[in-house]
Structure formats: C-alpha cells, structure tokens
Amino acid sequence: MTEQDHEWLTQEAFDRLSAELADREGPLREQIKERIAAAREEGDLKENGGYHAAREEQGKNEARIKVLRHRLEHARIGRPEGAEGTVTPGMIVVVHHHDFDERMEFFLGAREEAVEGLDAFSPTSPLGAAVAGAVVGAQVSYTAPTGKTFTVTVLEAR
C-alpha cells in the first residue's frame, strides 16, 4: 500500500469516526430493523411509505458503514512529516487565487478534521493535490472539474 492510499486523521477524528461506526453498526442498525419490522406488520408493502422510508434509511446507513470501515482501516493517526514551509495534509493553507484576485484560507484534509468556519479540501481534490507538497511562495495551477485551469500562490501553511 502506498503513502497516497492512506488518509491522515487526528486521534480525535479517528475516535469520532470509530464511535459513529459503532453506533451505526449497533443501536442505529437495530432501530432501523425494528422500523422495517413494524412497517411490515402494517400490511401492503407496495403503498407503505414508512416501510420504503425505513428501507431507504437502511441502505444509506449500510453505505455509510462501508465508507467508515474503509476510512478507518486505511487511516494513519497523526500528521505526515514535511519540511518547514511545505504544505502537507492537516494544515491550514492560505493562497492568493489569481483568477478571482482574492485570498482564500482552507484546511487541507478530511472534512471531519476541518477547523470550524473553514472549508476543507481533500489532498486528492484538484486544489488540494496542487498545493500538497508546495512550498510557501510557490505558484501552482490546477484544473477544476469544469475543465477550467486556475492559478494560486501559496501564502501560508500552518
């Protein structure tokens, strides 16, 4: 497994995601099963909105369980090491966005790690990948999902 296959999480984020997984695999899963069973007892399933809603909730819960298991299995606790002044996941990054002539501050990492009030960009997102590994003062370009290329200058990494 390569370094890029891992996602860095703080201990707090890892614990929070582990607790969510435990809840979804235990009490929440049981509650949903009970709602499905109760809705089945009401009779005709074709027109039973409660049954269909509970089944949809069950599907969403199972999908989230799958995502959480994968993230936790591939998580690394802590922060990657990087040279001073180099952008690494887990940092707050400030860039000057040339195309909009504005300063932009964001967290580079998972949403669960984000600092309150800041947007989070994954290190695998176009902007995140462009700034990851860049040094303060570097000018980098990235291509947005729309196909447009943007240029930013890294002002701070802390």
Task: Explain this structure.
- By secondary structure, the protein is an alpha/beta fold.
- The protein has two domains: 75 residues, Transcription elongation factor, GreA/GreB, N-terminal domain (Helix Hairpins), CATH 1.10.287.180; 67 residues, Chitinase A, domain 3.
- Helix content is 39%, strand content 23%.
- It contains four helices and seven strands.
- The strands form two sheets. It has a five-stranded mixed beta sheet with strand order 5-4-3-7-6. It has a two-stranded parallel ribbon with strand order 1-2.
- Helix 1 packs parallel to helix 2, helix 1 packs antiparallel against helix 3 and helix 2 runs antiparallel to helix 3.
- It is elongated, with a radius of gyration of 21 Å.
- The chain starts with 6 loop residues before the first strand and ends with a strand.
- The mean pLDDT is 87.
Describe the SSE topology.
Elements: E1 7-9, H1 11-25, H2 27-41, H3 49-73, E2 75-77, E3 91-97, E4 102-108, E5 119-121, H4 126-131, E6 139-143, E7 149-157
Parallel strand pairs: 1-2, 4-5
Antiparallel strand pairs: 3-4, 3-7, 6-7
Short characterization:
This protein is α/β, with parallel strands linked by helices. It has helices at 11-25, 27-41, 49-73, 126-131, and strands at residues 7-9, 75-77, 91-97, 102-108, 119-121, 139-143, 149-157.
**Strands in their spatial order, largest beta sheet:** 5-4-3-7-6
Helix and strand sequence: EHHHEEEEHEE
Structural class: alpha/beta
Number of domains: 2
Low-confidence stretches: none
- Please state the overall shape, judged from the principal axes of the Cα atoms: elongated
Number of helices: 4
| End-to-end distance | 28 Å
**CATH topology-level name of the largest domain:** Helix Hairpins
CATH class of the largest domain: Mainly Alpha
Beta-strand fraction estimate = 15-25%
The value of Rg in angstroms is: 21 Å
Major beta-sheet overview: 5 strands, mixed
The number of E-state strands comes to: 7
CATH architectural type of the largest domain: Orthogonal Bundle
Helix content: 25-40%
What is the assigned CATH homologous superfamily of the largest domain?
Transcription elongation factor, GreA/GreB, N-terminal domain
